[in-house]
Specification:
Layout (H helix, E strand, L loop, with lengths): L4 E9 L2 H11 L2 E5 L3 E5 L5 E6 L14 E9 L2 H11 L6 E2 L3 E5 L5 E6 L35 E8 L3 H12 L2 E6 L3 E5 L4 E2 L3 E4 L7 E8 L3 H13 L4 E7 L6 E6 L5 E6 L3 E2 L6 E2 L4 H4 L2 E4 L26
Parallel strand pairs: 1-4, 5-8, 9-13, 10-19, 14-17
Antiparallel strand pairs: 1-5, 2-3, 3-4, 6-7, 7-8, 9-14, 10-11, 11-13, 12-18, 15-16, 15-20, 16-17
The structure holds fe (ii) ion.
Fe (ii) ion binds next to β9, β14 and β17.
Length: 320
């Protein structure tokens, strides 16, 4: 039994009006709204919920709002959900909501599992011409005025006990280690076959629990760039990007989110199988990003806004 990926995320925040505009600009569809809750969907039916901090019934966060309160993972069938129910029922914070079961992980984050509500989608994506492989003939490559994310592909948390938290996801939910920063970080994927990571856990030198970012998969590099430029034109702040991760090989662009921490557009991550051997890395700016633009690109001039040499610190060491 392996999880299929992230079905839903639930943020807790108080400025719902700002979150509403942010996620609309981000490219999600607003499914429903009330004074207590915004529900957005991505292209494949993955849900992004922003619950008002006062809304009852949402799990407590591992840090003050705004932050991510719950991560809901999908399984293929009711039989698999039953297996998960059995596996988790002795765990702290166990909840059984019928169609959704869950517990809290060793960091205190609420995780839930449900039969997936996402649908398979077929999308036109950019084809690439390389020296050896001409995939695009008599056809221009796409450009995007804005992004429409396909799904939430991964979440990244600061954890207080990296060893215990990564062991928990492996032992109870079948996650597989893709790569590691020994003692500092662990990249995990839901199943032996799949994208490089669905979950990345980080432990700071002075450990604290919290959200680092929520990442949205888009079709291709051009959608990362088009989406990022649109967010910039809308006035939202880049944290870092565009850029490229050496670990996972993904092209990324991070924005500061009113729903907590950062959100990321990414694409073209490594696809792994059981043959993949986890690698070990030492944290550093060139390991985090092969290249990246600090401060982003101005959406109107299409030129770099700001450039600053890396400090030599691990990016996530930055105090909040
Ligand atoms: Fe990421």
């Amino acid at each position: 039994m392996h999880l299929l990926g992230i079905d839903e995320v639930i943020f807790g925040a108080s400025d719902l009006e700002k979150c509403r505009q942010f996620f609309l600009d981000w490219g999600l569809s607003l499914h429903s709204e009330s004074t207590q809750e915004l529900v957005f969907t991505s292209l494949n039916g993955c849900r992004v919920v922003v619950a008002h901090s006062d809304k009852p019934g949402v799990a407590a966060g591992v840090e003050p709002d705004p932050t991510l309160r719950e991560v809901i993972w999908g399984v293929a069938s009711h039989a698999e959900l039953e297996l998960v129910r059995e596996r988790l029922k002795q765990q702290p914070g166990f909840v059984d909501l019928g169609t959704r079961v869950g517990c809290t992980d060793p960091t205190g984050l609420a995780l839930r599992v449900q039969v997936t509500q996402k649908q398979a989608v077929t999308l036109d994506c950019a084809k690439t011409n390389t020296w050896n492989d001409r995939q695009r003939v008599d056809q221009a490559s796409p450009a995007y005025d804005r992004a429409t994310p396909i799904e939430v592909g991964h979440v990244v948390f600061f954890v207080t006990d990296l060893a215990a938290t990564s062991a928990f996801y492996q032992e109870h939910l079948g996650f597989v280690v893709s790569d590691r920063y020994p003692g500092r970080g662990c990249f995990l994927r839901c199943a032996p076959e799949g994208g490089h990571h669905n979950l990345f856990l980080l432990q700071l030198p002075q450990p604290r629990a919290g959200l680092n970012h929520v990442a949205f998969t888009v079709r291709d590099v051009h959608e990362v760039f088009g989406g990022g430029l649109h967010m910039s034109r809308c006035g939202w702040d880049t944290e870092l990007g565009p850029g490229r991760h050496p670990i996972s090989s993904a092209i990324f662009w991070y924005f500061v989110s009113p729903a907590g921490a950062l959100v990321e557009y990414y694409t073209d991550e490594d696809e792994l199988t059981e043959a993949w051997q986890p690698r070990e890395f030492t944290p550093g700016p060139t390991v985090f990003a092969e290249w990246a633009i600090k401060g982003g690109i101005d959406g109107h001039t299409r030129r770099q806004k700001d450039a600053e040499a890396p400090s030599g610190r691990f990016m996530t060491d930055k105090p909040r």
